[in-house]
Design a protein that fits this description.
The complex is a heterotrimer of chains A (140), B (126) and C (495). By secondary structure, chain A is mainly α. Chain A has one domain (4-138). Chain A is built from five helices and no strands. The longest helix of chain A is centred in the last third of the chain and has 25 residues, at 114-138. In chain A, 35% of the residues are buried. Chain B is an all-alpha fold. Helix content of chain B is 75%, strand content 0%. Chain B contains five helices and no strands. Chain B has helices at residues 2-9, 11-29, 33-54, 77-108, 113-125. The radius of gyration of chain B is 21 Å and the shape is elongated. Chain C has a domain at 281-495. Chain C has helices at residues 6-20, 29-57, 79-106, 112-131, 135-154, 159-190, 195-205, 210-228, 237-243, 246-272, 274-279, 282-302, 307-328, 331-362, 373-376, 378-392, 398-412, 417-442, 459-477, 480-489; strands at residues 60-63, 74-77. Chain C has a two-stranded antiparallel sheet. The chains are: A mainly alpha (140), B mainly alpha (126), C mainly alpha (495). Chains in contact: A-B, A-C, B-C. The A-B interface holds A 31-32, 36, 105-106, 132, 136, 139-140 and B 62, 64-65, 67, 84, 88, 95, 99, 102, 106.
Chain lengths: 140, 126, 495
C-alpha cells in the first residue's frame, strides 16, 4: 500500500485519533465511554498506521514485546488496585469504604479508583487489539 | 387489529426472534464456514437486541447523572452495560473462529465444510 | 477475618500467573515450570483452608467492592463450591504435573508458554463458574471457558485439531447464546441477576409466568446440555477430546464438562428451587435423555478403534449417569451424581493419562496394536486396568460405589426401570473395556523380545497417574471419605 495520499492523511490523522482515545479513557467515569471504547479507538489508530505503512514500520514503532508487556501490566494493574481495597480493610475492588478520594461528581479527579481501573482497561484493550491485528497479518 | 397493535408495540422482540431464527438457519444450512460465523454473529446480535429491549423505558433518557437537578426518567442501564461485555465476548469469538478458518483454508484449500469432509474421507482411505 | 478473601486470592493468583507466563523469557522454561508449580501449590493450600473455614464457620457470600447484591457481582462460598473448588484445583494440579513432561512430545517448544497461559485461564474460569452467584457473571466465565477449551485443542497444529476445535467452538457458541437468551428471559420475569434474589422473587410469582420460566429453563438447559455433551448434543465431543493433546483431553473430559453440570445444578436448584422444577416436570425429561445417553454412548464406544476416541465416547455414557442422578431431583440422587462427578473425574483422568503414556512411549493409538503391552509398561497398564474396572463397576473401585449409590437412589425414587438401564450400561462398558485389558496382559505381542521390561516412562508422568489410581482404589474401599463431604454439599441445593 504505497500511496502518498493515504500515508500523508494517516500521518496527519493518527495523533488526533490517539488524543481522542485518551480523552475517552480519562473521562470514562464522568461521561459515556470508558476503558473499552477509548482503548478500541487508541488501538484502531495503530491499526490504521499498520495498514498504511506496513507491518515492519509498525513493529518498529511499537514492537511485539512492548504490546505483550502492556497487556500483562494492564491486568496486573487492575489486580493491584483491587487488592489495595483488601489491604485498606475492605473487600476486593472496594472504593468508597477504603477511603479513596471521591471528589465532586462531574469533575475530572473524582470517583476514587474508577479512573485508575479505566486506565488499566484502556491500556489492556488497546494493546490487545494491536497484538491481535499484528498476529493475524503476521502469519501469512 | 388488536393483534397488529400488539406486534407494533413489541416490534423489537419480534425482530430479535426473527433475527435469532435467521441466524440459526444460516448456521445450520450453509456449508461455507464463513457464512456459519456470520450466522452466529446474527444470532448474537438478536440476543443483544432482546436484552437491551428489556431495559428500555419509554421516553427515558440516557443514564448519565443529571447535575442540573430535577428528576429525569432513565432507561435501565444494567442490560446495556451487560451487553457491552457480551459484545466483547462476541468479538473475541469471531476473531478466534476466523483465525481457525484461515488455518483450515491453508490446510485444505477450501472453506466449504462438505468439501473438507470429502478430503478427510479420501485421506483416511488412501 | 482474612480467610474470607481466600477464594478471591485463588482466582487472582491463577489469573496473574496466566498473564505473567507470556512475558517471562521464553528460553527459560524452568522458570515457567517453577512459577506454575508454585501458583498451583498456593491455590491448593488456599482451597484446603477455604474448605476448613467453611466447615468451621459455615458458608458465606462475598460481594465484590461491597456493592449490594442486587447490582454487584457476588461469590458464594459454601460447602458445595468450596469442595468442588478443591476438587478442580487438586485434580488439575496432578494433570498439570503430568503435562510438564508429556507436552514436549505433543506441541512445538515455542508454544509451551501459550499452552500454560491457556490452562491457567481455563482453571480461572472454571473456579469462577463454581464460586459465582451471579447469572451474567456465570455467562462471562462460560465464554472464557469455551474459548480457552477450544484453544487448548487447536494448539496442537494439525488439520484434525483445527476442524475439531472449530466445530466445538461453533456448537459451544450456540450453547452460550442459548444460555444467554435463557438468562435474558429470567431477567425479564424477575428483574434480577443474582441467583439468590431470583429465587426469592420467582418463588412468589412463578404461578403467574409458568411458560416464561419453562422456556427460559429450556434454553438454559439446552445450552448447558450442548456444553456438557448430553447424548443427542454430544457430536463435538469425540473429535475434540480425541485429537487434543493428552493433558488437554484429561482436563476437558474430567473437569471442564463437569463445571457445566455444576451450573445446571445451580440453575435448577438454586435459581428455581425444587418446588418449581418438579412442578414444571423438568427432571423427568432430563432422566429420559440421560438414560438414552447411557446406552448409546456405550454402543458408540464399542465400535471405536482409536483408544482416545473410545474413551471420549465412554464420557458421553458416564455423563448420562450424572444427569440421571440430577434428574431424580432427590437428595440421594443428587449425592450419587455428585459422587459420580468426583469418581468419574478421577477415573477418566487416569484413563486418559495412561492412554497418553502409551501414545507417548509406543507412538500407537490403535486398540489392535496393544497386545502384550502390559509387560512392557506394567505400571501404566495397571493404572489403566484399575480405572477401566472402575468404569465397568468391579467392587473395590470408586466406580462401583457410585453405581451402587445411584442404584439405591433410583430405587428410592421408585423408578426401577433405570436400574435395568444402569445394569445394561455396565455390561456394555465391560464389552469395550475388558478386551483391552485382556489383550494387554494375556496376549503375546508379535515382536516382543525381552520377557519383562522395566517401566521407562519419566517419573514426572508416572507419579500423578499412580496417585490418581491410589485415590480411586481408596475411595472404592472407603467411600465415606467423599460421601461425608458430598452429604454436606447437597443441602445447599435441596433441603
Amino acid at each position: 500500500m504505497d500511496d502518498i495520499i493515504v500515508k500523508t492523511i494517516t500521518r496527519l490523522i493518527v495523533p488526533f485519533i490517539q488524543v481522542y482515545g485518551i480523552f475517552v479513557i480519562l473521562h470514562g467515569h464522568i461521561s459515556p465511554g470508558g476503558g473499552f471504547s477509548g482503548g478500541a479507538v487508541l488501538g484502531s489508530s495503530m491499526i490504521l498506521f499498520t495498514l498504511s505503512f506496513g507491518l515492519p514500520m509498525a513493529s518498529r514503532k511499537i514492537p511485539h514485546k512492548v504490546t505483550s508487556i502492556l497487556e500483562t501490566s494492564g491486568i496486573l494493574w487492575y489486580i493491584i488496585i483491587g487488592l489495595a481495597g483488601i489491604y485498606l480493610g475492605g473487600k476486593f475492588l472496594v472504593n468508597k469504604e477504603a477511603g479513596f478520594f471521591m471528589g465532586q461528581a462531574g469533575e475530572l479527579i473524582s470517583a476514587g479508583i474508577i479512573p485508575l481501573l479505566t486506565l488499566g482497561i484502556g491500556i489492556k484493550v488497546a494493546s490487545t487489539m494491536i497484538t491481535l491485528f499484528h498476529t493475524i497479518i503476521e502469519e501469512d | 387489529m388488536e393483534f397488529i397493535k400488539a406486534i407494533a408495540e413489541h416490534i423489537n422482540y419480534v425482530a430479535s426472534v426473527a433475527l435469532f431464527v435467521i441466524g440459526l438457519y444460516t448456521v445450520l444450512t450453509h456449508s461455507n464456514l464463513l457464512k456459519k460465523v456470520i450466522g452466529i454473529n446474527i444470532m448474537e446480535t438478536s440476543i443483544f437486541l432482546f436484552f437491551v429491549s428489556i431495559g428500555y423505558v419509554h421516553d427515558g433518557s440516557a443514564p448519565i447523572i443529571n447535575l442540573g437537578g430535577g428528576r429525569v426518567l432513565y432507561i435501565n442501564p444494567l442490560p446495556s452495560a451487560l451487553i457491552l461485555t457480551g459484545i466483547v465476548v462476541a468479538v473475541s469469538i469471531t476473531a478466534y473462529s476466523l483465525s481457525l478458518i484461515i488455518k483450515l483454508y491453508e490446510e485444505y484449500g477450501t472453506m466449504d465444510i462438505d468439501e473438507i469432509m470429502k478430503l478427510r474421507g479420501e485421506g483416511k482411505n488412501g | 477475618m482474612g480467610s474470607q478473601h481466600f477464594p478471591v486470592y485463588i482466582l487472582l493468583s491463577l489469573l496473574a500467573t496466566a498473564v505473567i507466563i507470556p512475558i517471562i523469557n521464553s528460553e527459560s522454561f524452568g522458570k515457567v515450570k517453577a512459577l506454575i508449580i508454585a501458583t498451583l501449590s498456593i491455590a491448593l493450600g488456599l482451597s484446603v483452608r477455604t474448605l476448613q473455614e467453611v466447615y468451621k464457620n459455615g458458608g458465606y457470600t462475598y460481594n465484590f467492592g461491597n456493592w449490594n447484591e442486587k447490582i454487584g457481582v457476588q461469590l458464594v462460598v459454601d460447602e458445595f463450591s468450596a469442595f468442588m473448588g478443591l476438587f478442580i484445583v487438586a485434580l488439575s494440579f496432578l494433570i498439570v504435573i503430568y503435562s510438564l513432561k508429556d507436552i514436549e512430545h505433543e506441541i512445538k517448544p515455542q508454544q509451551f508458554t501459550g499452552f500454560y497461559t491457556l490452562v491457567f485461564i481455563l482453571l480461572f474460569s472454571m473456579l469462577g463458574m463454581t464460586y459465582t452467584n451471579d447469572l451474567f457473571n456465570m455467562y462471562v466465565f462460560m465464554e472464557i471457558l469455551s474459548i480457552t477449551s477450544c484453544s487448548i485443542i487447536s494448539i496442537k497444529r494439525k488439520k484434525e485439531n483445527y476442524m475439531a476445535s472449530l466445530r466445538y467452538l461453533i456448537l459451544n457458541t450456540m450453547g452460550s447464546l442459548s444460555v444467554l437468551l435463557g438468562i435474558a428471559l429470567l431477567y425479564m420475569v424477575s428483574g434480577q441477576l443474582n441467583m439468590t434474589q431470583i429465587y426469592l422473587t420467582i418463588s412468589k410469582i412463578w404461578n403467574l409466568y409458568p411458560t416464561n420460566i419453562l422456556v427460559a429453563v429450556g434454553f438454559i438447559l439446552t445450552g448447558l446440555g450442548i456444553k456438557a455433551a448430553v447424548f443427542p448434543l454430544h457430536v463435538w465431543l469425540p473429535d475434540a477430546h480425541s485429537t487434543a493433546p493428552t493433558p488437554s483431553s484429561a482436563l476437558l473430559s474430567s473437569i471442564v464438562v463437569k463445571v457445566y453440570i455444576f451450573s445446571a445444578y445451580k440453575i435448577l436448584f438454586k435459581v428455581l428451587g425444587q418446588t418449581i422444577v418438579v412442578g414444571l416436570g423438568i427432571p423427568t425429561y432430563i432422566t429420559y435423555f440421560a438414560a438414552i445417553g447411557m446406552i448409546m454412548g456405550s454402543i458408540f464406544a464399542i465400535g471405536q478403534k482409536d483408544i482416545k476416541r473410545m474413551l471420549a465416547y465412554s464420557s458421553v455414557a458416564q455423563i448420562g449417569y450424572i444427569f440421571l442422578g440430577l434428574g431424580l431431583a432427590t437428595v440421594e440422587g443428587l449425592s450419587a451424581s455428585l459422587f459420580h462427578i468426583i469418581s468419574h473425574g478421577l477415573m477418566k483422568s487416569a484413563l486418559f493419562l495412561s492412554a497418553g503414556s502409551i501414545i507417548y512411549y509406543k507412538e500407537k493409538r490403535d486398540l489392535r496394536d496393544l497386545d502384550g503391552i502390559g509387560y512392557e509398561m506394567p505400571i501404566t497398564m495397571t493404572v489403566f486396568t484399575i480405572a477401566a474396572f472402575g468404569m465397568i463397576g468391579i467392587p473395590g473401585i470408586s466406580g462401583f460405589m457410585s453405581k451402587l449409590y445411584l442404584s439405591f437412589a433410583v430405587l428410592g425414587a421408585n423408578k426401577p426401570i433405570y436400574l435395568a438401564i444402569i445394569l445394561i450400561s455396565s455390561f456394555l462398558n465391560a464389552v469395550y473395556y475388558l478386551p483391552i485389558v485382556i489383550s494387554a496382559f494375556l496376549k503375546e505381542s508379535k515382536n516382543r523380545r525381552n520377557i519383562m521390561a522395566i517401566e521407562r516412562l519419566p517419573k514426572l508422568m508416572l507419579v500423578p497417574m499412580v496417585i490418581i489410581a491410589v485415590a480411586v482404589v481408596a475411595i472404592g474401599f472407603y467411600p465415606q471419605i467423599i460421601m461425608t463431604l458430598v452429604e454436606k454439599a447437597v443441602p445447599t441445593f435441596l433441603l
